[in-house]
Amino acid sequence: MSLKRKIKSCLLIAAGTLSLGLGVIGIFLPVLPTPPLLLLAAFCYIRSSEKLYSWLINHRVFGTYVNSYLTYGAIIRSTRTGALILLWSMLILTFDFHFCPGLVPKAVPACCGSWCHCPSFQA
């Protein structure tokens, strides 16, 4: 393996690992979108390390996100519903504790758009 290819592989592994870490954080924080970050990690891993790609695809938790996007081009409906319920509940809590009248006209359409825009399928 040439030096240039080895450096490229190391950079892709680093980018994939960073993306995977952010995706894991995104499972718990509704601000970070988990599936795109895990897809980016899969993209980086498939071009740098077959072992890491295989681990990600076959992982009990992360593999379902990636496989559903690769197979159906969407996320599982129950996952989408749970994420959007969490998004709306955080929005309501934010308005409840720190009400900002200028934010309401911007945030509510964004949440409605996230419900309509996010593709899903019945598992």
Structure description:
The protein has 123 residues and is mainly alpha-helical. The protein is built from 6 helices and 2 strands, in the order ααααβααβ. It has helices at 3-28, 34-46, 50-58, 62-72, 77-97, 104-117, and strands at 75-76, 120-121. It has a two-stranded parallel sheet with strand order 1-2. It starts with a helix and ends with a strand.
Number of helices: 6
Approximately how much helix is present in the residues? over 70%
CA gyration radius, whole angstroms: 18 Å
Q: What structural class is derived from the secondary structure elements?
A: mainly alpha
Query: Mean pLDDT score, rounded?
Result: 79
Question: In what order do the strands lie side by side in the largest sheet?
Answer: 1-2
Topology pattern, helix = H, strand = E? HHHHEHHE
| Number of DSSP strand runs | 2
Low-confidence stretches: none
Tell me the fraction of residues in β-strands, as a range: under 5%
Q: Please describe the biggest sheet, giving its number of strands, its sense, and whether it closes into a barrel.
A: 2 strands, parallel
Distance between the termini: 42 Å
Global geometry: elongated
